[in-house]
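input
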Amino acid sequence: MKSIPKTLSISRASDRWDMSSTTTQTRENEHSLILGVDVGSVSLSVAEINLKREIVKTAYRFHHGDVRGTLREALNGFDLGKIRWVAATSSTPSILKTSRQYDNRVAIMEAARHFHPETGSILVVGGEAFGLIGFDESGKYRSFRTNTSCAAGTGSFLDQQARRLNLESTEALSRQASGNTGAVPKMASRCAVFAKTDLVHAQQEGYSLEQICDGLCHGLARNIVDTLSMDREARAPILFTCGVSRNRAVVRHIEAITGKHVIVDETGMYGAVGAAFLLAGEGHEAEVIAIGSADDLLLPETARKKYFHEPLELTLSAYPEFGGVETYEYTVTPLPFPHPVEVDIYEVLKPGLEYEAYLGVDIGSTSTKALLLSPGGRVLAGFYTATAGRPVAAVQRVFASIEDLREKKKIGLRILGAGTTGSGRKFAGKIMGADIILDEITAHARAACEIDPNVDTIIEIGGQDSKFTTLKKGRVTFSIMNNVCAAGTGSFIEEQARKLGCPLAEYSSRTEGRRSPIVSDRCTVFMERDMNHYLSEGYAVEEVLASVLHAVRENYLTKVAVEGAIGNTIFFQGATAKNRALVAAFEQRLQKPIHVSRYCHLTGALGVALMLSDQGIRETGFRGTAIHRNTIHVSSETCELCTNH
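output
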């Protein structure tokens, strides 16, 4: 690791400050300072230099959308009275007085050439973007490669994972990763939402916090190297700068993957320093700015709130009351990794009676559901719990809650047949002895047609995937699901709620009736940028939360659904349909009624139970709910055929 010298001298004669030759001005200029400012999507840096290009003081902060307040705090301890010129990067918002603004890339190259003239490439990894600046053998600028519209591999990706691991900061994640001496678990670094599943898996497989953090850093490094073709394109030595360069584990992995020397110095804020250096080369042409305090640097706030979306209100759609005659939570404490099971009883269960039922189980990526259906087609009870990366344990919890229900209500229960659907349908189906194993499209379509035979469109938004299905006379005519990006899913909404401190149960009530601005619908990382911007502009948290729902809807309609194929009887299925405000967002855009069933979160399980009933199954291979008492050993292996692992 190479550090910037504490005293940095002029490297070329042409870089010297060219001011008036009068003795008074010369003495005055000797004590004058330049302030460089670089504000990015999630952080800001400031650097104070003198006219000899010596760094006097620097500061780096995460702004969380409050750029003005963070800038004031960052400038504490700076000798503002001596500052006469202010240079800023082009990414810095127009909220402060500046003598000059410079392109971010040009500013970074200026500082890099000053401190490390031997640099062959510059790797820049910030909050929402990363890129590789290439030089030829003579040191001239050659090329620039950057990431796509996906923000996997950026600083915000690690920020989100740090929050999931209950670490106070990305720096804490870096310290944990640097302390790892064990094996590194494979992590899907392609998406901040999908990475959550891998975190859960790694925790439950016994990996330590240090190993998990190091696995995340390795995945991030691999994503950067692969996206930028660094192993082929980057000329060594590689100068690594911006926020992620502070993560020593990422640096170590990039060096190991590329086999090339990586230079990291102690400042990392080349944008702010480079902008100040560029201004220093312009001499007396730069406008002098007198600063007595940080407030003198900031321009008055003139922004007014601008709303893009109308208030979220249901006007065309009927909306159900959820729950049944009784709702409660059941926790299976003896089992490992306990998660509560939400139990909804839909029929009055009379003590002493024997009930026959078909059991449908839907094992999804984020939640596991089950439903008991009478031979006459009445829904007796529904069960909902988190999959939490352990589908077998989730099914065992559900079975334990079914047995608890039977004992609590003092009833007999005979399972006539059992079936599974969802991403874990085959795995769980073999363990429990399922009579049928049904794909999710068929299961959801069967349930929707039972509720309304005229249904022609199904909108289904799950925890990590979204599906769009069209039907005609009860038959599926077309179906498609989202690709590897999880923007627009239930976990996407949950992520934004967590960021803004809103319990998921309160999301709908806090956003109904709210107007909102427009935010990116591409990625949780880019959405964070927009959300921070609006919060800094004074928008209410509820307004920003409402904008997320519109973004989810737009993502679904443009990237999953075929809008021209949407019919007139539209069903919205999946647990996200329990968010009334999200349903209102779809109604507002489509201008059609959106139908939501009281069983919307259980429709996959309902469809399986209905198919069992259709087939009239009486002889079952179901092993019984008592298998929740068994210890079921599960082993896993990692597929190496692609970087998703």
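quick obs: Residues 1-27 have pLDDT under 50 and may be disordered.
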